[in-house]
Specification:
Phosphatase 2c, domain 1; Beta-Lactamase; 3 domains; 5-stranded antiparallel beta sheet; about 550 residues; 21 strands; alpha+beta
Length: about 550
Amino acid sequence: MTTLARSFRRRFLGRSTEADRAVRDTEQPVATSHDEQAPVDIAPNDPLLAYLQSASGAVNVEALALDSPALAELKAAGVKLAVPLVSQGELIGVLNLGPRRSEQDYSTDDRKLLDNLAAQAAPALRVGQLVRQQQAEAATRQRFEQELEVARLIQQNFLPKQLPELAGWQVAAYYRPAREVGGDFYDVIPLPDDRIGFVIGDVTDKGVPAALVMAATRSVLRASAQRLVDPGAVLERVNEHLCPDMPEKMFVTCLYGVLEPTTGHFRFANAGHDLPYVKTADGSVELRARGMPLGLMPGMFYEEKEAVLAPGESLLLHSDGVVEAHDPEGAMFGFPRLKEAVARYPGGGELIDRVLTDLREHTGTTAEQEDDITMVTLARSPSAAHPTIGVGPTHQLVEFEVPSAEGNERLALQRVSAIVTPLGLDQARLKRLETAVGEATMNAMEHGNGYRVDQPVTVRVLTEANLVRVQITDLGGGAPERETEEPDIEAKLAGLQRPRGWGLFLIKNMVDEAHETSDGAEHTLELVMHLDDVSAVPDEGGEQ
């Protein structure tokens, strides 16, 4: 007798002597290990299977004429009768009998006895099958739970045990997987020269495969970060290592940035991860850098960008589990709402708590978490003094680009103002510098770049021993146009002087020093403000 599973395997447990004795003496056949024969597979499309399912009793195997591989195997094994075992209308097994010992054919009474035996054996056999199925499912669940536990331990082991304590900074992190094991991860990497590397990523899968990919990504990234300085180069190296062995349909989004705590300088590269947000005095801004997710294609380039976190500003790194959380009506939490939260709430751990509160209000307290949620924040204390002032060498605080379009000079002066404000300039001198930066940027966009949007103006802010320098560079690299005479309003109105010259005249009278340089390709105007020598600043009339 054999049972049917989804693969329709058949096992013959009796020989002709035991079968004949069962019919003649109404005793159960006893199968021994040496009597067992190899199982016969009946394919789902084999005509024998359909025939047995429709049969109403014992089937004479020798009398069947079907184009069936399974039937040929049964005949070769010496099977004479096949008795279908049916439970609740489902074929669950077949009782196979060889020839009788007496070599006589099976009688009508024999067939009735076999039909009765099949009717009684089928329910018991079905119960045995269900028990075995439950045992198999329990074993599968146990193995799955063990795998999840292994994955959970792997993931926990690779998450940071503690966050760094940085003077003048608050660093906070939050991680909550949607299931036992998630695909999110974050890391904090100590680097030379007191720099700190921050990582946040998301593997597009769950369970053991995601945990192993996460562990591999973290290990390669940590090793690369110690040898390579630039975040973009680090992500390139990680991508090249992951591509050959990345499982099919899996990849990793990842953002890697390096913070210089003493200056607030943050240089970063992004491999397809959600954009971070910076809280500023005017609201919040996104930090954009282009790059493909890791593990998809070799030979990828990862753009690097940089920003300076001024005192009072904060940075939020996050995963998509925050913005993709849905309310009961299906509406997402969304990027605009998260950006607004960064602008509205204080930074650090309080920002994380406030965002989580907003999430609960959005999804409802009983809603099941849909995806992993990870957040890392860096908040700079408002009272943090800038350590580069008065120490001697020049240090660049920030470099950024402004597209050459009318009105963009406001972007430049606002950004410079936010960087310079903590350095200690009084309000009047700060306004003068803002005016000079705005005027110089407008001139660079108009006269240097001809208002071509594809030719941006570059702005750099540097400090050097009690002064601040603002360099504004355009692509009009000819020799600087020098004024041979001081602008005079009466002379200009009388047509005795050219109309040009007022812009540079105004700029030079707004700052302590102004210097023009050109290398033939680029033109740079440098504005200098002293931080402790107010006597060098002209009064409202332009006199020293």
